[in-house]
Amino acid sequence: MKKEIGYLDPWMDEESEFERICLLCTEPRVPSGITKAGRFFCQTCQREWILEKRKIPRIGRNVLNSDEKTAFLLENLSLFNSALGLDDLMFRFSELISDRLKKDKIAIFITNLELGEIKLAHYYSKQKHLQRVFKRISLDYDLSYGILVEAMAKREPCYYKFSDQSHPFYSFYSKLTGTKSQLVLPILYANIAVGMITIDYEDPNTLDYIEDEEILKIVVGQFAVSLRNSLLFSKSKNQSKHFRSLHTAALTLSQLYLNNHNEMIRMILLTLSGIVDSTISCLIEIPPNVSKAKVFKVNRDLENYELKTQTETIEINELNSIIHAKEIITIDPNKIPIFQTLGISGKESIIIPVNLENQTICIFILAKDETRFPHEEIEALNAFVSLARITMENSNLYQNLSNKERLEKEIEIAKEIQSNLLPRNTPEAEGFSFGGLMVPARGIGGDYYDFILSPNRNELFVCIGDVSGKGVAAGLVMATVRTILHSLVRVKDSPWEILNDINNYLYSSYRDAITPRFMSMILIRWNLISDEVEVSGAGHGNFYHYQVQTNSLSSIETGGVILGISPDISRFKNESKLYFKAGDTILLYTDGVTEALNASEKQFGELSLENSFFRNINLEPKKILENIYLDLKEFVKEQEQHDDITMVAVRKI
Fold first, then answer.
1. Could you give the CA distance from residue 392 to residue 253 in angstroms, rounded to a whole number?
2. What number of other Cβ atoms are within 10 A of residue 106's Cβ?
3. How far is it, in rounded angstroms, from Cα 544 to Cα 527?
4. With left for phi above 0 and alpha for psi between -120 and 50, is residue 564 left, alpha or beta?
5. Which residue spans adopt a coiled-coil conformation according to this UniProt entry (predicted)?
6. What is the pLDDT, as a whole number, of residue 406?
7. 3-state SS track over 73-116
8. DSSP for 482-542, written as a single string
């Protein structure tokens, strides 16, 4: 047998007592022949591999024997059967692979054929800065990108050198990571590529990829199933979030903005851009028998979380290319001249036409800088625009009400929407107890308080604020600030940065108004893990901190400046930190509490508030606030309430 295989001749004399083993399957078999680059074909595992002579069979650096393969697969199955979110799934899978392959740099790409893009969804490396840099990288599903897209299209693994690729992406990637070559394995679900996993090598001629590929093949199929399920769950979760947002937004629009057309349009555009994370949202409004159309625009800076609104006019004859649209269409904004005039650019735009009963033509336009609009976002946009259309129709009808009817309707609507915007339930944060109370003056208030628990349940934001003025106008500002605040707390950690962004909105939106709108606020960020509390103030005054250990009450002055007065409040920056222990309680309040007057024109005052708070400190926070209010009512008797009365209490249990 040996004489028939030429490459064994040099070892004939010394090899009679040895066996040759396949480093992949570890079985002692004589190969059938030599192939290129000194590798052999193993008759046992039917694969091309390296053969090595040993007295004792030895496994390669990473190659697994049959028992280890089974153990490795079971280890992965335990991961894939877990109820993990998309980010956790990718992190744990890449961590497991990194540990098994002893590789530092692993990337997971996810394919979205609907959008025609491949997104670098996760990059695992001990160099944490690389993970941040790669967070937003995406490729067009276009063969011009080279081997990565080719591997996805062919649905086959491949190993390649970066020096062989001409697309600029590979040069950028190589300089950033030091990668010289890469192994690519498509992640296939039902023979459709849902993504790919890549291993980076700093050696352009490594042979490690051969063993790495064999190990990855063991589990990539199971990972494909888990990844597909996680993507579907994430998609359904986003759809659910969209339609919950639609419900809330529809309620807000239908009940709050009927008597303020321009603010109604701004809120519609702000909500639209929030649903799809678009950089610009625009409404072109064309009433019947006019020569010029009105254009409302909201620009969102997604990097700095800033908003800019503007209103302008445009000649109707310049809109001929889009004015006759009858249904939703997506389009390249760079191919439409009028879009350049309107300042609309990006990778893709969507046009949504709406015709009102009074013959007004409305054209909504949204644009994205780097991505396209997926189907579920288009569905959500279409649903919201339908709701917005009802709001605009109701607004037109509302303008025809008599002054008396309008006033009665205004009060009714404002009271209802305000009650819906304030927290209905306290957050479910283990180890804490909450209380909130608001009694508006004249039925409609400008005060605001809120509890916002972070999605990971590790942070709690507590705020209280007071808008200048009363009635629907103040309620309008309160509702808008609430919307902005709920968005900002998810992306910014610093209370001061959030207050600064709210100031920018109030100043830019109301500086030219007949009646400018200002707002004081205290914003607290409570780390529920470390119990560290960060506080920033915006001209709202102080709050109280009861410390159970010393049985003492401290007045904490926050400082700052009222929001909306100045375009730049950086010189008023204030940040302080507090630490809480079990039993400690804080009390926040608006000036409607301390400035409540009795028949003798005497104020309730801070001393009475402190005494009432201290006297009721052993009660639950909600009961504390109720008893303070009873003390206040006892003080003012039948005297008319001239300002909103709002209080918030939080206790660490």
1. 9
2. 23
3. 19
4. left
5. none
6. 59
7. HHHHHHHHCCCCCHHHHHHHHHHHHHHHHCCCCEEEEEEECCCC
8. HHHHHHHTTT---HHHHHHHHHHHHHHHHTTSSS---EEEEEEEEETTT-EEEEEEEB--E
**What DSSP string runs through 213-240?**
HHHHHHHHHHHHHHHHHHHHHHHHHHHH
Which segments of the chain have a pLDDT < 70? Answer: 1-84, 114-115, 131-133, 135-136, 232-259, 302-306, 398-421, 424, 442-445, 470-472
Closest CA relative to residue 540, chosen from 565, 561, 570: 561
Residue 31 near residue 51 (C-beta atoms within 8 A): yes
Closest CA to 62 of 204, 185, 186, 215: 215
d(CA 87, CA 216): 20
What secondary structure letter does DSSP report for 321?
A: T
Looking at residue 73, its amino acid is L
Q: How many CA atoms lie within 13 A of 255 on its CB side?
A: 19
List of E strands, 532-582: 532-538, 542-547, 552-557, 576-579
CB atoms near residue 19 (< 10 Å)? 13
pLDDT of residue 18: 37
Q: Which residues make Cβ contacts (< 8 Å) with residue 485, sequence separation at least 6?
A: 450, 452, 461, 463, 498, 502
**Could you say which DSSP state residue 285 is in?**
E
What 8-state DSSP symbol labels residue 639?
P
Query: In the prediction, which pLDDT does 248 show?
Result: 53
State the Cα–Cα distance between residues 482 and 422, nearest whole angstrom: 9
Residue where the block lists tokens 């209370």: 495
DSSP 126: S
pLDDT score for 19 = 45
- pLDDT (tens digit, 9 = 90+) per residue, 461-470? 999 999 887 6
| CB burial of residue 248 (10 Å; 0-12, 13-18, 19+) | middle
- Residue identified by tokens 């308080």 is 449
Collapsing DSSP to helix, strand or coil, 633 comes out as: helix
The C-alpha angle 228, 232, 237, rounded to 5 degrees, equals 145
Q: Which residues contact 581 (CB under 8 A, 6 or more apart)?
A: 531, 547, 548, 549, 652
CB atoms within 10 A of CB 330: 13
Between CA 562 and CA 520 the distance in angstroms is 5
What is the model's pLDDT at position 523?
A: 96
Residue 556 has a CB neighbour count (10 Å cut-off) of 17
Compute the distance between CA of residue 349 and CA of residue 367 in angstroms, rounded to an integer: 4
What is the three-class DSSP state of 154?
helix
